[in-house]
């Protein structure tokens, strides 16, 4: 009876994409560990980009820094 | 000093119902483990139904499948 | 189909006490929100006291500070 | 940059099985949401069976109840 | 490669304050444990006050009780 | 009344290092958001390296791959 929590940045994942994630994670647990789908919970959290940090920066700032300056 | 996280699908739990959950979980920890209410935190997360999967499906689809087809 | 995570310091909670917590939280969700026990998961985490901080201190140091010095 | 937490009961999942879970979840996020593997974290928690409740019971008791009494 | 989850009540933390938290936690992990910023994730959850309990009460009720009655 | 969860790989963090993390995170929340230390919880989880995945691999394999083959 697994419990899976998926956290992703909120950037437009559709309900159809989320359904694919739910199906895919559940299938994986069935295949690898022989778990029952009926007792496999998957909870998806979409996190605002200003609430997700990496490299010491909010994620959009981090990506901008990686992309580098557009110097003239 | 317990920390409790309650995740439920977002389906209209009122503030009053949530207050009952907070009181009930706290009382339980006091009664069973002699914890202090002042250092017992309870955090409730309401999860959109499209973000909650069970049986490999988003929960509303799963419930519909359990309820069965209305065949003609 | 709720998911509940209870975090407590590891200080000797027995399996019987944990079973009481599991039963109590589940009953609460049935009573307050009419949830089904069969799809209510409860996961208990026991956390080492050196891994639990409050008041800026590991919890045992914090309790000792609250208890105060035994000055002579 | 997703973060995935997989909670399963501690019942002998090998390091090889865990590696399959890590690979499978990461592939899924790449395929469905075009995420980068290098910024996809997967954390697996194995939970003692006495710490996992379902149906208001510790999971081994719950399974035993579902299996039914072996009456004579 | 640490993962940090900060839960706070939703009471007006600005994006700038959140960026300070992200920078501060990341710096701390670099300084204390020599972790790499590029693989340090920080996720902030803002929790509605009606969803946060302490002392057996939703947090605003708890604070009001601590502040005491304004008796006449 | 924040709640902070720090997840790190289990690689020998001492109790003294953990105490530094607890103090540092708490100070940060006091400084940035004016939170009270007495109601700031910090929970540290040390995760076995075989339970932590990144880049689709258990973390030690991932680091080895990044370090590259020592070909002759």
From TrEMBL, chains A, B, C, D, E, F:
<dbReference type="InterPro" id="IPR018191">
    <property type="entry name" value="4-OT"/>
</dbReference>
<protein>
    <recommendedName>
        <fullName>Tautomerase</fullName>
        <ecNumber>5.3.2.-</ecNumber>
    </recommendedName>
</protein>
<comment type="similarity">
    <text>Belongs to the 4-oxalocrotonate tautomerase family.</text>
</comment>
<dbReference type="Pfam" id="PF01361">
    <property type="entry name" value="Tautomerase"/>
</dbReference>
<dbReference type="InterPro" id="IPR014347">
    <property type="entry name" value="Tautomerase/MIF_sf"/>
</dbReference>
<dbReference type="GO" id="GO:0016853">
    <property type="term" value="F:isomerase activity"/>
</dbReference>
<feature type="active site" description="Proton acceptor; via imino nitrogen">
    <location>
        <position position="2"/>
    </location>
</feature>
<keyword id="KW-0413">Isomerase</keyword>
<dbReference type="InterPro" id="IPR004370">
    <property type="entry name" value="4-OT-like_dom"/>
</dbReference>
<feature type="domain" description="4-oxalocrotonate tautomerase-like">
    <location>
        <begin position="2"/>
        <end position="59"/>
    </location>
</feature>
